[in-house]
Amino acid sequence: xxxxxxxxxxxxxxxxxxxxxxxxxxxxxxxxxxxxxxxxxxxxxxxxxxxxxxxxxxxxxxxxxxxxxxxxxxxxxxxxxxxxxxxxxxxxxxxxxxxxxxxxxxxxxxxxxxxxxxxxxxxxxxxxxxxxxxxxxxxxxxxxxxxxxxxxxxxxxxxxxxxxxxxxxxxxxxxxxxxxxxxxxxxxxxxxxxxxxxxxxxxxxxxxxxxxxxxxxxxxxxxxxxxxxxxxxxxxxxxxxxxxxxxxxxxxxxxxxxxx
Length: 260
Ligand code: SF4
Ligand code: SF4
Known about the structure:
By secondary structure, the protein is of the alpha/beta class. About 40% of the residues lie in helices and about 10% in strands. The protein has helices spanning about 20-25, 30-40, 70-80, 90-95, 105-110, 145-155, 170-175, 180-185, 200-205, 220-230, 235-240, 250-255; strands at about 10-15, 40-45, 55-60, 80-85, 135-140. The chain has a five-stranded parallel sheet. It starts with 8 loop residues before the first strand and ends with a helix.
């Protein structure tokens, strides 16, 4: 009788983050059960008691690097992983905690914590790809569970994941939404934002605030002219790009055009 082939081993790792992207994986429910049929979930602190051991065929990494310990830990994760996929705005762009990259982190900790001397943290929050080679980056805050299932199954099947690089505007039109910017003068970052959410916010008459980060080659300078015509002042234009993906080069550059 032929020996039974063992299942590929999947690990899920957490760094500085809110856990929302890991929850997206659990939120897959039926699809996640199908994934667990195909893989061994060998390490996933949020869902199992497994210990770190051996190598992993696929590692999903959530969170950014904000401490010296995490900067070491990610090297260990990389060494143990055949494929390393980063998930979410923290892991792919430094997350909202990258706002510290524009300021003095010591000033922040002195305001937030009663005993800031207990806090050991780096002056920056950086994406995983700045520390180790990454095989694929899945964007979003949080990520789309449909895209996550697509990425996991694609890597297990040995093919490239199908995750469109176009803007939220394209998804918005495909969904048949009325454009909130054109119809109601509501500021919207859809033209510069990576697809993935299915244009969720405009579907509910709200402007997009860019939680999936910049799309490929965004023309943020042009969008800023539109936003200024809608009444956004310089300080608003500086801040509108500084949310979950503030330290991505495209959003950072456009934000800094409107002041430091
Ligand atoms: S509502 Fe926003 S995302 Fe939709 S088409 Fe208009 S600008 Fe683009
Ligand atoms: S429309 Fe924009 S802000 Fe809303 S979920 Fe999608 S990417 Fe995020």
